[in-house]
């Protein structure tokens, strides 16, 4: 009896959960990629804060760089869903999915340069670390200029 009631409730829930799939799938996709970018942004900002000596957490530099590289590698998949036909609020331009290879290339470059930053941090040379951070930063700006609304 109890099981039957539960099963019935689950069936109702499944039916209502499936109905509005188009709208909520786009919403979820936008939320996911924005969270991914927030993670990229947070690791980048904390990496810079440590490098500038704004916070006394030098021992966390490598972990922040590794976090940045990990988040950057999630980005290509995070942007795959074309939400340009929906009315979900986003700053992503429709161009992304019309020029996917170029866009994905930007994300790949961000990930590669983040890996290079990790290597520079592990190498310990301050000038090299500074250059590597700057190289990552250029990928953010180039892509945002091209593929993000202001
Ligand atoms: C190849 C393209 C590309 C690269 C590279 C890129 N971004 Fe983004 N980023 C985007 C797009 C597109 C959005 C808008 C996403 C949306 O609103 O759906 C975005 C959004 C953001 C956001 C706002 C997230 C939110 O809360 O809505 C932050 C923060 C951000 N990016 C940081 C960065 C940083 C830092 C880097 C470099 C380390 C970077 N991005 C590299 C394309 C890129």
Task: Detail the poorly predicted runs.
Answer: none
Radius of gyration: 20 Å
Q: Which structural class do the helices and strands define?
A: mainly alpha
Which ligands appear in the coordinates?
A: heme C
Termini separation comes to 57 Å
Order of helices and strands: HHHHHH
> What does the average pLDDT come to?
92
Number of helices: 6
Overall spatial form: globular
CATH homology group: Cytochrome c/b562
CATH class: Mainly Alpha
Q: What fraction of residues sit in β-strands?
A: under 5%
CATH architecture: Up-down Bundle
Number of strands: 0
Kindly give the count of domains: 1
Give a quick precis of the structure.
It holds the Pfam family Cytochrom_C_2. The protein is an all-alpha fold.
Task: Describe the protein's architecture and organization.
This is Cytochrome c556. Heme c binds at residues 140, 143-144. One of its GO terms (biological process) is electron transport chain. Helices cover 77% and strands 0% of the residues. The chain has helices at residues 2-18, 21-51, 61-78, 95-98, 100-123, 126-147. The protein has a single domain (30-147), classed as Up-down Bundle (Four Helix Bundle (Hemerythrin (Met), subunit A)). The radius of gyration is 20 Å and the shape is globular. The chain is built from 6 helices and no strands. It starts with a helix and ends with a helix. By secondary structure, it is mainly alpha-helical. Helix 3 (61-78) runs antiparallel to helix 5 (100-123). The structure holds heme C (HEC). Residues 30, 33-34, 37-38, 40-41, 44, 90-92, 103, 106-107, 110, 136, 139-140, 143-144, 147-148 line the site of heme C.
